Amino acid sequence: MPNALTFLAAVWLLLAAVSFDHTAAERWNELVTGTVIAVVALTRAISPRSIPWLDWVTVALGGWLVATPLLLAYDTPGEAVNVVVVGLVVIALALVSTAISWRARSKPRFDAYPGDTSRMG
User: Fold this and answer.
1) Separation of alpha carbons 110 and 121, rounded Å
2) pLDDT averaged over the chain?
3) Disulfide-capable partner of 52 in 16, 59, 101, 116 (CB 3.0 to 4.6 Å)?
């Protein structure tokens, strides 16, 4: 579920990139970052037990979004607030996804055959 919500946040960022009156650098930053977040979120949603480190990539991308209004000097406060809020939401959802993945990976799986340890955890 957190990855599906992260995907929706990425879609919101992509829509905001083409809706707001951004400079070229701001628009490209949001388009590229939103696309990468969407792809990572879809990958994690499709296969939540594999590639758990992608959540940390998502946390880093969310951190980048939080920092970009300062680095790119956004002109409009509303645009800056939008990017920061999306970045914070992405970070929070990625951390929730990490916690869920960690709990799921640490629990033993009881569907393995007796004596078969290859399918455990």
Assistant:
1) 9
2) 84
3) 101
- For residue 48, being part of any structural domain is answered with yes
The residue ranking higher by pLDDT, 100 or 49, is: 100
Residue 103 neighbours by CB under 8 Å, 6+ apart: none
SS3 102: helix
Number of structural domains, the chain? 1
Please say whether the dihedral angle defined by the alpha carbons of residues 70, 71, 76 and 79, taken in this order, is positive or negative: negative
Structural domain for 86, as ranges: 2-106
- CA neighbor of 58 nearest in space, from 13, 106, 107: 13
CA dist., res. 119 & res. 111, Å (int): 8
Of the chain, the percentage scoring pLDDT greater than 90 comes to 45
